[in-house]
Every structure is written in C-alpha cells, then in structure tokens.
UniProtKB/TrEMBL annotation:
It is a multi-pass membrane protein. Signal peptide: none annotated. It comes from the Eukaryota. It holds the Pfam family SFXNs. One of its GO terms (molecular function) is monoatomic ion transmembrane transporter activity. Belongs to the sideroflexin family. Its main location: mitochondrion. This is Putative tricarboxylate carrier. GO terms for biological process: serine import into mitochondrion. The chain crosses the membrane at residues 7-31, 51-73, 139-157, 178-197. GO terms for cellular component: mitochondrial inner membrane. It is found in: Mitochondrion membrane. PANTHER family: SIDEROFLEXIN (PTHR11153), SIDEROFLEXIN-2 (PTHR11153:SF14).
C-alpha cells in the first residue's frame, strides 16, 4: 500500500490522458489491472493463502472486466454522449474491475471463511459472512480512493483545454494530470483506508443466522459462551 500513491498517480494520469483511442485504453487498463492485482494480493488477509491458478484467474477476470467496461463505455458514449463524458471511461473501468478483482483475489476467504477472534485476540473460528463484510468495505474504500481524482480532473482538463496556450501544449497534459492525481491520492489513500477500521467487527448473531456450522464451531471453541461480537482483519 505504501506504493499506492506513486504507482497510482502514474497509471491514473496515463489513463486520464490517453483515453481517446481504443489501443491506448486497452494498454493502460491492462497496466493498471496488473498493478492492482499486485496491490490486492499483497494487502489481502495473510492467513488466506492462494494457489497460482486462483491468482491467474483473478487477474485475468479483473483485466477482462476492466477492458470490457472501458471499451463498451467508450463505444456507447461515442454514439450517445459528447467528448467530455468519454473522459469518465477510465473511472467506470476502474470501479468495475475493483468489484471483480478484490473478491477474486480473496476468494478463499469467501469460500472457507476468515478467522475471527474475541476481544482478547483469541481465534474462535471462521466466518464467510465476516469475509463478505470485510471485502465489501475494501472494495468501497478502493473506489473512494480513486474517485476524486478521476471524477474532478476531467472537469478541470475540460476547462483548461479551452485556453489556447494550454491546448497547444500537449506535452504538458500528461505531467499535469499525473501531478494532480498524485495530489488527490496523497489525501485520499489515508482517507479511504481510514473509512473503516482495520480491526473490523461483526455480531455473532449474524453468524448464527447465516452460518449455522460456523456458529457451532464458535460455540464449541468458547466452551458454550460465545461473545456477542467477534473481530477480524479486513485487509486493505
């Protein structure tokens, strides 16, 4: 996560600058999803190992979803919307890919459950419901992290490109957008990570309602006295 700002600003700046041609969209979406796959893998819950096949499937699916969304939006908006709306193709693709990439990179948590503990840190069992909550929060955090730069910068660029000297200086567009994205990310990375607590909690009553077997394990591991709330690491 420490490389999120420099890596994200370079890739997001490129996506926002080179959105006009399909080949550029394909290349930069692929590059961005390769970076995101690495970030999602290194910031998963470390207690949930993945096989190589699972990682490759997650990477391929997320990249495909980003490309399909980007190319689909570009094609549709070219026919039904003006050039300004096409500037939002990168954000649509990034948001769609995050909804696919993160759950797939952490699929073992959804299948097998994530470790939950009592308030003293003693592991009392696993829960798939907890995994759904944690992963959903991470997806929302990642989209929130990217949103300000990718939603506000197109408006700024649309205004600046109406200024004659700036419009002529094409060489400045990419560095300007990259720097601006970096400024947004400098604030949004810590803000988005702080939206939800790292040590997340869930009511045991929810586990009892939706995961009878997991609740039985918690009940057994706590010698018949399960806590009302259990805690887990949601990842980043």
């Amino acid at each position: 996560m420490s490389f999120q700002v420099p890596g994200g600003m370079l890739l997001t700046g490129a996506m926002l600058t080179f959105y006009r041609t399909t080949s550029a969209v394909v290349f930069w979406q692929w590059a961005n999803q390769s970076f995101n796959a690495l970030v999602n893998y290194t910031n998963r819950n470390a207690n949930s190992p993945m096989t190589v096949n699972q990682m490759l499937m997650a990477y391929a699916t997320a990249t495909t979803s980003a490309l399909v969304t980007a190319i689909g939006c570009k094609s549709m908006w070219q026919k039904s919307a003006g050039p300004f709306i096409q500037r939002y193709v990168p954000f649509a693709a990034v948001a769609a890919a995050n909804c696919v990439n993160i759950p797939l990179m952490r699929q073992n948590e959804l299948i097998q459950g994530i470790e939950v503990s009592d308030e003293d840190g003693n592991i009392v069992g696993k829960s798939r419901v907890a995994a759904v909550k944690g992963i959903s929060q991470v997806v929302l955090s990642r989209i929130t992290m990217a949103a300000p730069g990718m939603l506000i910068l197109p408006v700024i660029m649309e205004k600046l490109e109406k200024i004659a000297w700036f419009r002529r200086m094409h060489i400045l567009h990419a560095p300007f957008q990259t720097f601006a994205v970096g400024c947004f990310l400098s604030f949004m990375v810590p803000t988005a990570c702080a939206l939800f607590p790292q040590k997340c909690s869930i009511d045991v009553s929810l586990i009892q309602r939706f995961e009878e077997d997991s609740y039985k394990d918690i009940h057994k591991n706590t010698k018949g006295s399960p806590p009302k709330v259990v805690y887990f690491n949601k990842g980043l």
